[in-house]
C-alpha cells in the first residue's frame, strides 16, 4: 500500500517514495538499538561482575586483611620489644651496674589505606624494611639476653645476693603499694621524701628476704618501729620496717625467700603495712626496679603506674 503526503505548496497529495521510508526506519531502528545496548551494558556492568572482577575483588579483600594483620603484628612486636628493652636495661643497671649496648635501630609502624598501597608500591618496601629491622633487633636482644644469662651463670652467688623479688607474696599484684618519692606525710600533712615502697598488707602477713645475706641489725625505732636490716654484700642492703614481729636474730644468715618476719603497725604508721627499702652503696634504689626475677614487664609497668599515682605515704 502506498503512503501519501500532503504538499501545502501545490495543495495536492504526493506519494512517499518507499526507499526514503525504509531508510528513515533503518536509522530510527539503528539509533534505538545503540541506545538500548548502552543502557543494557551499563546495567550489566553495575550489577554483574565478571569472573576477572570477582577474582580481583577477592584479592583486594585478602590483601586488605593481610596488611591490617601485619600492621597489628608489628605494633604488638614493637610494644614487646620496648618492654624487653626496659627489662634488659633494668637488669644491666641493677645487676651489673652497666648500661646495655644500644642497637641504634629505630622503626616506625604506620597505617596505610589499601588505596595508597595500590597506588604506591614503596609502601611494600617500607613494610619489608621494617620487618628486617624488627628481626635484626630481636636477634640483637636475644644475643644480649644470652650474654646476661651467661654472666649470671658464671657467678650465681653474686646474683643470689641481689634483691630481685618482692618481700611479700604479691605476684598477682593484689596488694596496693606506694612508691618512693615526694609524698604527703600522713601525720605531718606536708610533702616529705618517702624512702621506700609501702605494701598495704594486713597484720601478720609473711615477710621474706629478697636475697641471700646476713641480718645486720634489728631495731626498735620510734619512726620505723620494729625493723630488720639485711646486708647482702656487693653494696646491697634491704630494710623491712613497721613489723609486728621479727622471726630471725641479728647475725643470722638468710636465703632469698626465707621467712624473716610478720608485718605490723609498729612505729610511725597510719595503719598496718610493710615498708621496704633497697640501698646500693649508700644510695637509695627504687625497689620496683629490683623485682625483675619475679614480675614480667607488663606487671612491672602496672605496678609502677599504680604506686606512682598514690600521693600519700603510710608512714
Q: Report the biggest beta sheet as strand number plus sense, adding barrel if it closes.
A: 10 strands, antiparallel
Helix content: 40-55%
Low-confidence stretches at least 5 residues in length (pLDDT < 50)?
A: 103-109
The number of E-state strands comes to 14
The helix/strand order is: EEHHHHHEEEEEEEEEEEEH
- Shape descriptor: elongated
Which CATH class of the largest domain? Mainly Beta
Give me the Rg, rounded: 40 Å
Q: Please state roughly what percent of the residues sit in beta strands, choosing from under 5%, 5-15%, 15-25%, 25-35%, 35-45% or over 45%.
A: 15-25%
The overall pLDDT, averaged over residues, is 76
Number of helices: 6
- CATH architecture assignment of the largest domain: Distorted Sandwich
Could you say what the CATH topology of the largest domain is called?
Answer: Glucose Permease (Domain IIA)
Structural class by secondary-structure content: alpha+beta
Number of self-contained structural domains: 3
Termini Cα gap = 121 Å
CATH homologous superfamily of the largest domain, by name?
Glucose Permease (Domain IIA)
Amino acid at each position: 500500500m502506498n503512503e501519501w503526503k500532503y504538499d501545502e505548496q501545490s495543495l495536492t497529495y504526493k506519494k512517499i517514495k518507499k526507499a526514503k521510508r525504509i531508510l528513515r526506519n533503518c536509522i530510527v531502528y539503528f539509533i534505538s538499538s545503540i541506545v538500548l545496548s548502552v543502557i543494557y551494558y551499563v546495567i550489566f556492568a553495575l550489577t554483574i561482575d565478571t569472573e576477572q572482577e570477582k577474582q580481583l575483588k577477592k584479592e583486594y579483600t585478602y590483601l586488605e586483611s593481610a596488611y591490617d594483620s601485619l600492621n597489628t603484628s608489628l605494633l604488638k612486636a614493637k610494644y614487646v620489644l620496648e618492654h624487653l628493652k626496659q627489662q634488659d636495661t633494668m637488669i644491666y643497671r641493677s645487676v651489673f651496674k652497666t648500661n646495655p649496648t644500644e642497637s641504634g635501630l629505630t622503626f616506625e609502624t604506620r597505617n596505610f589505606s589499601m588505596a595508597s598501597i595500590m597506588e604506591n608500591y614503596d609502601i611494600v618496601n617500607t613494610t619489608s624494611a621494617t620487618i628486617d629491622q624488627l628481626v635484626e633487633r630481636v636477634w640483637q636482644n636475644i644475643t644480649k639476653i644470652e650474654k646476661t644469662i651467661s654472666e649470671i651463670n658464671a657467678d650465681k652467688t653474686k646474683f643470689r645476693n641481689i634483691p630481685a623479688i618482692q618481700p611479700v607474696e604479691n605476684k598477682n599484684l593484689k596488694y596496693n603499694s606506694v612508691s618512693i618519692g615526694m609524698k604527703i606525710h600522713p601525720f605531718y600533712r606536708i610533702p616529705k621524701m618517702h624512702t621506700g615502697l609501702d605494701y598495704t598488707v594486713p597484720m601478720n602477713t609473711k615477710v621474706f628476704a629478697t636475697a641471700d645475706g646476713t641480718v645486720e641489725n634489728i631495731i626498735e625505732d620510734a619512726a620505723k618501729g620494729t625493723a630488720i636490716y639485711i646486708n647482702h654484700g656487693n653494696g646491697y642492703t634491704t630494710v623491712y620496717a613497721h613489723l609486728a614481729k621479727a622471726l630471725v636474730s641479728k647475725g643470722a644468715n638468710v636465703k632469698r625467700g626465707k621467712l624473716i618476719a610478720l608485718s605490723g603497725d609498729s612505729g610511725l604508721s597510719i595503719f598496718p603495712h610493710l615498708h621496704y627499702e633497697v640501698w646500693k652503696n649508700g644510695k637509695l634504689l627504687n625497689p620496683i626496679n629490683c623485682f625483675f626475677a619475679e614480675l614480667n614487664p607488663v606487671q612491672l609497668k602496672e605496678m609502677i603506674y599504680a604506686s606512682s599515682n598514690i600521693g600519700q605515704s603510710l608512714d
